[in-house]
Amino acid sequence: MKNITIQGAVIPALGLGTFQLPDAVAQEITAAALSEGYRHIDTAQIYQNEAGVGTAIKNASIDREKIFLTTKVFRENLHKKDFLPSVEESLRKLKTDHVDLLLIHWPNRNVPVAEYMEQLMEAQHKGYTKYIGVSNHTTALLDQVLATGADIITNQVEYHPLINQNKLHTYLREKGISLTAYSPIAQGKVLGNPTLKAIGEKYGKSEVQVSLRWLVQQNNVMAIPRTSKAERLRDNINLFDFELTADEVKAIDQLKQDNIRVVNPSFAPDWDTV
Asked: Fewer CB under 10 Å: which end of the chain, C or N?
């Protein structure tokens, strides 16, 4: 397993995402993932599966300090009066006294960036989280985040071979911030792609594995594929016995011209400012 080191945090480059997994399924899949060697687990308040994830981690015969656990504060909890109580509830559900990374899940137009970042830094100060970061933040929003003096280690965003995230990725690299890729296989849209398929055939790998390899082969990029099937866990983590050539990376890079975005809720920020 490849790790990335960012501002002192050592994080497995490949993790388990739990978006849309019901609580019981999240518990089962998290337990299976830990058995397969995953040590990076991602959940969120709005997923409503923190309890299942927490139970799986608590029941695993693995030192808690060896698991990098992330959760996210939902946009409805970003006001000062709601923020810390919501984090405390998350910790109770997760059956732990701290997470390794706490993220702002989505910005909220009704809550100033400075207000929620102050609360995020307060959560870190209280020991509720070791590290802090954001998710779904554009470069314009990141300018406001960094203006607060917060030391964020990542921006978790949609990133896969079919979307153009050049501007955001360049910004993050310049600022020394990692990119965590959610929906890293474009919710299945990479399947059947001729370029990915042809490259995969050379290595005996699937389009999914090629896509994930393309991500984790990049500097300071992590990927958190989600699956509800235990048998897929092994495939998703089986990325570290091959390496894409420079020409193959270049060919995959060309796919971003499609610029397909699969996650775009009504409350999303203005992506044009990415």
From this structure: N
